[in-house]
Specification:
- By secondary structure, the chain is an alpha/beta fold.
- Helix 3 runs parallel beside helix 4 and helix 7 crosses helix 8.
- The termini are far apart.
- It has two domains: about 180 residues, Rossmann fold (3-Layer(aba) Sandwich), CATH 3.40.50; about 100 residues, Rossmann fold (3-Layer(aba) Sandwich), CATH 3.40.50.1100.
- The protein is built from eleven helices and ten strands.
- About 40% of the residues lie in helices and about 15% in strands.
- The structure holds pyridoxal-5'-phosphate.
- Pyridoxal-5'-phosphate (PLP) binds next to helix 3 and helix 8.
- The site of pyridoxal-5'-phosphate has 17 residues, from helix 3 and helix 8.
Length: about 300
Amino acid sequence: MIDWRESLATVPVGNTPLVRLRRIVPAGAGEVWLKLESGNPTGSYKDRMALAVVGGALERGDVAPGDRLVEYTGGSTGTAIAYAAARAGLRFTAISSDAFAAVKLRSMDAYGAEVLIEPSEGGKITPGLIARMRDRATALAAEPNSWYTDQFGNADIRPGYAPMGAEIAAVLGERLTVLCAGVGTGGALMGTIDGLEDADCKPDLVVLEPTESPLLTTGTGGPHRVEGVGVGFAPPFLDRARISDVRTVGQDEAVAMCRRLAAEEGMLCGTSTGLNVVAAVRLAVEQGSDSVIATFGVDNGAKYLEGGLFG
Ligand SMILES: Cc1ncc(COP(=O)(O)O)c(C=O)c1O
């Protein structure tokens, strides 16, 4: 039997670079720093939560090697769980759909996951589709030797991101004035702020959402193309009392920023990163040369090459 502790302890997750953006930030603006998470094994910060969830479940004995994890997912989270499951000697069944990028489904499959496809209506992500995926996942998770990872409620997720805050604090310390980022579950943003606060860093927290799905700003979501954020319901991990501000960024601005990041800074990133950087640069301009803004480079843009993000 594989030693899951040793196997999970030897993964190259975290300790990613924090890079200062220079070319796309106008003169006279503050500093903008990007936590470049594309270097994690499956190419996104989701590897941090997957390790925390899988490690926590094994540690408590919720699952044992050979058992099966179950989740409903559109991609990045599922790929990260598939990876952590493979490392730990667990099986993984992902409930997904033809509405999500084919490359993400193939990645889960490549890591040995069973990928069950819930058919969409014409490739659209709709509340009905999500509800069917969730129902199928909870039914499967009730079977013997199966366990629901629960990406929208698992208590291991937020602490799983705390090291990201510690890593940012180690570079910027108390100079950091603002942390801003788009949210899906809110796990990455809240976990990071916990890690920063543990290191006595207390930046303002600015939450971002697509202009086309302004749930936090107006109470109503909507369809948009920024994968992973603005999911149309309240982000379960978001602590609204800790937030300084909520800002919206248009999906076309996010796409344009991805293209600039690739061509001008040499960073190939996904759309949610484009959204993060648009807002970070805006804040750095507004707050002036003394400001220090950090945000997340969530994932690697390579998986969006087929989807037209880069033209
Ligand atoms: C590409 C991408 N960006 C951003 C997010 C948002 O992260 P979180 O759920 O931690 O708020 C996700 C989450 O699925 C994602 O897949």
